[in-house]
From TrEMBL:
Protein name (record): TonB-dependent receptor plug domain-containing protein
Species in which this protein is naturally found: Fodinibius salipaludis
UniProt keywords, alphabetically: Cell outer membrane, Membrane, Signal, Transmembrane, Transmembrane beta strand, Transport
Record keyword Ribonucleoprotein present: no
Signal peptide residue numbers: 1-23
Primary location group: membrane
């Protein structure tokens, strides 16, 4: 009987450790850096390559959804866009029209759990965009 209890407790520990590991990995941000082949990329191209980001709709009616428990419960809420360190709002079309092809250096996607530094404004996630003309570059 003691062997069975020991086996169950070990199995439960493995299960708990596995679920904790999954919870912590979903909170990390993902950065997509510009490379040689990104010369003609748009904001949409960067976001389509990010894990956990969905673009729904077309034209000036595109909805951006970042995977996370807060954004799944309300799929019509948009992430906050930060362009070169300045808040640019939640309108994807307006933000994407700020850039011509190839003007984006990097895009960093912060899911709802990892965007606490922005307070309630980051409730549905944050997309940080750094242009090639930014003064914040680490060069």
């Amino acid at each position: 009987m003691k062997r069975l209890n020991l086996g169950i407790s070990i199995g439960l520990c493995v299960l708990l450790l596995g679920s904790i590991g999954c919870a912590t990995t979903s909170q990390h941000s993902q950065a997509i850096e510009s490379q040689d082949n990104t010369t003609y990329w748009t904001l949409e191209d960067f976001l389509r390559r990010a894990n956990g980001v969905q673009l729904n709709g077309s034209g000036n009616d595109i909805q951006v959804i970042i995977r996370g428990h807060k954004s799944i419960s309300n799929p019509f809420s948009q992430p906050l866009f930060i362009v070169d360190g300045q808040k640019a709002g939640r309108n994807y079309y307006r933000v994407s029209s700020m850039f011509a092809r190839g003007e984006i250096n990097s895009v960093k996607v912060l899911p709802p759990g990892a965007s606490a530094q922005y307070g309630m404004q980051g409730h549905y996630g944050v997309i940080e965009i750094e242009s090639k003309y930014s003064t914040n570059q680490n060069s």
